[in-house]
Amino acid sequence: MNVNEENLKDLLVTAVEGGINYWAMVRKYDPDAGSAVVIEIESSGEGAPIERLVTFADLREPLKRLAAQLGQSPEELFENHDAATADALVQMVLFGEVIYA
After folding, report:
1. Which of 35, 41, 73, 91 is the most buried (most CB within 10 A)?
2. Is the residue at 30 inside a domain?
3. Is residue 29 classed as helix, strand or coil in its secondary structure?
C-alpha cells in the first residue's frame, strides 16, 4: 500500500475524531481538505498552549520517523494504524515528539 494523500487524510481524520481528544481541542476541521486547527488544552511546557493548523501533508515526515522508531516502513505502520498511532503523529507535528501518553 502506498501512503498517499487520501491515506494521510485518513490518519488526520482518525486523530481528530478519536486520537487527540484527551489533550487537544479541534476547530476549523475540514475532513475533505484534510486539515484542522489543533489546540493544546493545557500547555505541555512553559508558556501558552500550542495552537496550529495541521494538514494531512504535515503527517508525512512524522509517519516516516515513527515508522523508523518502530522498525517498520511507513506503509506497514499505516496498514496497522489506530487512534494511538494517529495521535502520536499529530503530537510529533506539534511538539516534535510524543509527550502525551
Report:
1. 91
2. yes
3. strand
